[in-house]
């Protein structure tokens, strides 16, 4: 997918995830979550080249200064990722984030170990993480799950879970509960931008 198609996809995703989003121009200029993601993509490309890791880290620190969102350049971020209100979000080096994931402000995807191994969480596709939640360690939050605000999560959660509390516990979603799904049909076909 080329640069402009990806940019357009991100703008459509912002509108789909945020009912307050009023238009692409405003979102492009004013959404710090989008700015953080775009700068992360550049930093991540640099990070893939070992001789460019220092510039990657410097760019990620600039992004943190600019947006209040810290994403390590080594983190793996999926498509249509959206950070709403952004400030205070921290995503560690070995974190993996699936497609169509949404984080609110103050979320930490952090580690519990100093060892140089996978030490940050993995979020499956379509996961929503509430404000202030802390997801710590090399755990897996299954696809289509929701993590409640201020939860402290240190254990895996299967797909279709609701995860809440300190320490967090999970339960299956009930059929009547809203699933955070963004209709892919709403996305502009990237092929028209190639």
UniProtKB/TrEMBL annotation:
<protein>
    <recommendedName>
        <fullName>Serine acetyltransferase</fullName>
        <ecNumber>2.3.1.30</ecNumber>
    </recommendedName>
</protein>
<keyword id="KW-0028">Amino-acid biosynthesis</keyword>
<comment type="pathway">
    <text>Amino-acid biosynthesis; L-cysteine biosynthesis; L-cysteine from L-serine: step 1/2.</text>
</comment>
<dbReference type="InterPro" id="IPR045304">
    <property type="entry name" value="LbH_SAT"/>
</dbReference>
<dbReference type="InterPro" id="IPR053376">
    <property type="entry name" value="Serine_acetyltransferase"/>
</dbReference>
<keyword id="KW-0808">Transferase</keyword>
<comment type="similarity">
    <text>Belongs to the transferase hexapeptide repeat family.</text>
</comment>
<keyword id="KW-0198">Cysteine biosynthesis</keyword>
<dbReference type="GO" id="GO:0005737">
    <property type="term" value="C:cytoplasm"/>
</dbReference>
<dbReference type="Pfam" id="PF00132">
    <property type="entry name" value="Hexapep"/>
</dbReference>
<dbReference type="InterPro" id="IPR001451">
    <property type="entry name" value="Hexapep"/>
</dbReference>
<dbReference type="InterPro" id="IPR011004">
    <property type="entry name" value="Trimer_LpxA-like_sf"/>
</dbReference>
<dbReference type="GO" id="GO:0006535">
    <property type="term" value="P:cysteine biosynthetic process from serine"/>
</dbReference>
<keyword id="KW-0012">Acyltransferase</keyword>
<dbReference type="InterPro" id="IPR005881">
    <property type="entry name" value="Ser_O-AcTrfase"/>
</dbReference>
<dbReference type="InterPro" id="IPR042122">
    <property type="entry name" value="Ser_AcTrfase_N_sf"/>
</dbReference>
<dbReference type="GO" id="GO:0009001">
    <property type="term" value="F:serine O-acetyltransferase activity"/>
</dbReference>
């Amino acid at each position: 997918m080329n640069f402009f198609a990806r940019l357009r996809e991100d703008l459509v995703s912002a509108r789909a995830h945020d009912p307050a989003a009023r238009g692409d121009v405003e979102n492009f200029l004013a959404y710090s979550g989008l700015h953080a993601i775009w700068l992360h993509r550049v930093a991540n490309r640099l990070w893939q080249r070992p001789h460019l890791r220092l510039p990657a880290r410097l760019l990620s620190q600039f992004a943190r200064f600019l947006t209040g969102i810290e994403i390590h350049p080594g983190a793996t971020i999926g498509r249509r990722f959206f950070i709403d209100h952004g400030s205070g979000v921290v995503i560690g080096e070995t974190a993996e984030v699936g497609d169509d994931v949404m984080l609110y402000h103050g979320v930490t995807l952090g580690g519990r170990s100093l060892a140089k191994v996978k030490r940050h969480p993995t979020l499956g596709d379509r996961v929503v993480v509430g404000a202030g939640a802390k997801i710590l360690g090399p755990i897996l939050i299954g696809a289509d799950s929701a993590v409640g605000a201020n939860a402290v999560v240190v254990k895996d959660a299967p797909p279709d879970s609701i995860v809440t509390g300190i320490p967090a516990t999970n339960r299956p979603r009930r059929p009547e509960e809203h699933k955070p799904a963004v209709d892919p049909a709403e996305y502009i076909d990237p092929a028209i931008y190639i």
